[in-house]
Specification:
There is one protein chain. The chain is mainly beta and 87 residues long. The protein contains 1 helix and 7 strands. Strands 4-3-6-7 form a 4-stranded antiparallel β-sheet, with no helix packed on it. A 3-stranded antiparallel β-sheet has the order 1-2-5.
């Protein structure tokens, strides 16, 4: 991840597709409770093979994430193809 003035850029390396093209990604960000991961609507990658997305910092400070300034942002990314989601 990278911070730019008003945004966080989440990027990843495409995983092995298991023999079927990747049709999208599911991006989740951990909330302030440090346990719950929520789908990030700013990164609707369900039909995209792009391997990055940009999230406004203001969205991360708001519900449901409610993150404070200066905390680490934790995200999970799963690839999606005909076989389902990656681990």
């Amino acid at each position: 991840m990278a911070w730019i003035p008003d945004d966080v850029v989440i990027s990843w390396t495409a995983s092995d597709n298991g023999g079927s093209p990747i049709t999208g990604y599911s991006v989740k960000i951990r909330q302030s409770d440090e346990m719950t991961f929520t789908v990030n609507t700013f990164c609707d990658m369900s039909t995209s093979t792009t391997t990055s997305c940009t999230v406004p910092v203001i969205a991360l400070k708001a519900a449901p994430f409610s993150l404070d300034w200066g905390v680490n942002v934790h995200a999970t990314v799963k690839a999606i193809n005909i076989y389902g989601s990656s681990t």
